[in-house]
Amino acid sequence: MAAIDGSVVTRWAVQAAAVLCLFLPAPVWAAGGADCTKAKTPDEKVICASPALGRVDREMAASYRGLLQAVVALGPAAEQRLKEGQRGWVAGRGAACGLARDVEVTAETRPAFTECLAELYAARARELEGIRAGLPLSAAIAAIAVTESVAQQHYEIDARYPQIADAGIAGADGFNRRIKEQVTELIGQSQREFAEMAADPPDSDGAGPESGSSLWLRYDVFFPSQRLISVRFEISTYFAGAAHPNTQYSSITFDLAGGRQLTLADLVGPGDDWQGVIARHCLSELKRVSEQHDIGFLPDDASAAVSETVADFTNWSIAAGRAIITFNAYSVFSYAAGPQEVEVPFALLKPYLRADAPVPLK
After folding, report:
1. Domains of the chain by residue range
2. Residue 234's pLDDT is what?
3. What's the pTM value of the predicted model, to 2 decimals?
4. Is residue 4 exposed (0-12), middle (13-18) or buried (19+ Cβ within 10 Å)?
5. Element (H or E) spanning 355, and its range?
6. Sheet holding 322-327: strands in order across?
7. Angle in degrees, CA 255, 260, 262, rounded to 5
8. What is the pLDDT of residues 103-138, one digit of tens each?
9. CATH T-level fold of 265-352
10. pLDDT per residue as tens digits for the range 63-90
11. Are the C-beta atoms of 15 and 78 separated by less than 8 Å?
């Protein structure tokens, strides 16, 4: 459901827009395409000024209506979750691209806003496709919000994590507990670090909300089958006075049928050269991306770094027909290049999978 070749900004924007459904009223464009005779907000005007965006908007509206028809059969709760998600996405897309209601769009700024909205639409389309492919399980996922602002210690926490809202789904309790444990641990660690920093602050130009510390947590969910859920967390931590946030990705793949979190040992047999095969595939793909997108050259010791990333299952997300391995910033490229993702088709993994691996090969 996440953009495979997208930027960090795009993924953040999509997720930020999606969660605004918790706070904003439902817009009239949630289910249908843009009505340009009633365009009022800056994002609506940018969409209506671009024939390409207008077409994409209509295509998304049609895709959403088809998905809604499929979800209605799963009950009113699932229908409501989907509606809220789409309404929130529409309501938040402008802010996600910097198009606040008082922003004036000029000839100079319009291209950048148009490009941002196009990326948002592409990512949301992939997300809707992922929900459709993951039905009925995907319709049961609800977003839980955790927010905290402590003025005395100059930090804020804004976290979202998924939970299975339908208790009748086998393995839901185990999944919910494991995800909540992970998030609770992350938040607790950040709270302790922020409190320590507030007690002994570093030298900086100032203190207060604008220069305070923060934790921002979002997620992607992949549904390779009705048995498996793979959750990839985006964990962005900022410490007061730092040059930029530190953003890391970490995944959990949960076997609902077995009621437990999976490890690499549950997928691949010991002794095989699977790690070398996957590492060489990833290295080849990273070289291709670096050349095509001019994000920097791979260092001489990239092979070792790639192998280390491949060997850590928290870098793996299991999706339909493929695994996605996320390479965090600094793991192979510089921070400026951002994180990178490499798809590994199950066809490449198949010779090394355990006979009882709970992974669908199609």
Report:
1. 8-135, 141-261, 265-352
2. 94
3. 0.79
4. exposed
5. none
6. 316-319, 322-327, 340-345
7. 65
8. 889 989 999 999 999 999 998 998 898 899 899 999
9. Actin; Chain A, domain 4 (3.90.640)
10. 999 999 999 999 999 999 999 989 988 9
11. no
